[in-house]
Amino acid sequence: MRGRRRVRRMTGPSGVGIGWRPEIAGFVAELPGLRFVEVVAEGVPASGPLPPGLTQLRDRAVTVVPHGVRLSLGGAEPVDPARVAHLAAVAQRLDAPLVSEHIAFVRAGGLEAGHLLPLPRSREAVDAVCANVARAQAELPVPIALEPIAALLDWPDDELDEADFLTEILDRTGALLLLDVANVHANARNRGADPLALLDRLPLERVAYAHVAGGSERGGFYHDTHTDPVPAAVLELVGALCARRRPPALLLERDGHYPPAAELRAELDALASAAGFPAVT
Amino acid sequence: MTGTPEGGSAPAPRAGLAERQAELVAALVAGGEPPAGFAPGPLAATRAALLRKRAGEVARHWPLLAAGLGARWPTTFAEWAARRPTAGSLRDGWDLARALHDRHALPPAAAEELAVREARLRYDGVRAPRPRRVPAVGRAGGAVAVQIAGRVRLLRPAPRVPTRAGDGVPDAAGSELWISD
After folding, report:
1. Residue in chain B nearest A115 by alpha carbon
2. Between chains, do B38 and A120 touch, taking CB under 8 Å as contact?
């Protein structure tokens, strides 16, 4: 079923995909049924040669979605125009049908946190995110999907619950939702909440694609590490999500401690079977 | 507009989002005071998770530094980085490698990695490293690397001294005089 058409802009994410990383480029290149990958946008140059593995995938008409991790859309300060311009340029180069970023902040007061931090679920934070998403949307050539993050801490000044917070941001920005099933699991586990109750209240018709990743328990918390196998509970949650409304695509994120190829293939197969998608391996 | 938290047990007047975000980041990565109202357990878990994530990213940029330290890598990095906000993985690893070198605690493979980087790029410890435009020599822990026209070769490996019960490898003596820039 490999399409031969070369459209200028690739089709939207579909089926089971995997986060493209240089360390597993060879593995990804050899997945026969793959139609969709995601790439960390900050790792792709805006000009000059693309990483060779990515060029190959584009030649196969595999959809490549740039996934930003450093925009800091949830920062109180306006988003950095140079970072938005980079994301826009990468989307253009890759003929991406959309880009994605997080509902989070990664820097403040001149300091880099080094990773995604949660926002207070307050009206003020909703305003800040919506203003930054609007700034980004004004420069991006394609739609943006927003991903709620996994957080170990909550702010003391939350005014909204998670579903209301996310729905309000999506409604006001018109953005798509990138739903990370492992994050839903992690947050529910760490807050003692019910993940299914959250799924029931999110606008699942707005999901552009979903993330799935592994994690581990440590010090009384579930950590969304992306360096461990996908736990059974997360796969079950994928099934529960698909039973409600199956997203167009599911993407496995792995960011280190790469397992042998056979194990990674088995994870992709397990994802496909949990969602009822064809295997890509 | 923004009030200053007074401390105490009553809900403090809330500062603006920018200020509160800055306070939280400083508490997480720069040894700042924990911001009012945050539960200490989740704050500590977040701090540790950020350090682990950062250690993984630095290890990708400095594979021999991480591999050379082996099982000691996570704690060595975390101790060094706990109160130092990141300057990016390249510079974080570079600063740590230089600090370990100064303490004679840089493993040989990591010394070679550092020497090669020192030959390739000019790094003043403050600004982003830049490619060297003229031939240069990089040295660390007895390792010597030379860069000519952008190509770097390791001329002399760092000496492997028999380790004493898993201790760090001491720096080799007499490594200073080999070649001058």
Report:
1. B50
2. no
Which pLDDT score, from 0 to 100, does residue B5 have? 43
B35 and B73 share a domain?
yes
Helices (H), chain A: 25-29, 52-59, 81-93, 123-139, 162-173, 181-191, 195-201, 232-244, 261-275
Å between A21 CA and nearest CA of chain B: 12
In a domain, A281, yes or no: no
CATH number of A236's domain? 3.20.20.150
Sign of CA dihedral A45, A47, A48, A50: positive
Determine the structural domain holding residue A249 and report its residue range.
Answer: 15-275
Domain that holds residue B65: 16-86
Question: For chain A, which residues score pLDDT lower than 50?
Answer: 1-7
B167 lies in some domain: no
Q: How far apart are CA B144 and CA B142, in angstroms?
A: 6
Final residue of a structural domain among B56, B86, B116: B86
Whether A63 is in a domain gets the answer: yes
B30 close contact with A: CB closer than 8 A: yes
Which member of A75, A76, A115 has the closest CB to residue B16?
A76
Q: B7: pLDDT confidence band, cut at 50, 70 and 90? A: very low
Does the pLDDT of residue B42 top 80, yes or no?
A: yes
What would the pLDDT profile of B113-131 be if each residue is shown by its tens digit? 999 999 999 999 999 999 9
Q: Do B38 and A156 touch (CB under 8 A)?
A: yes
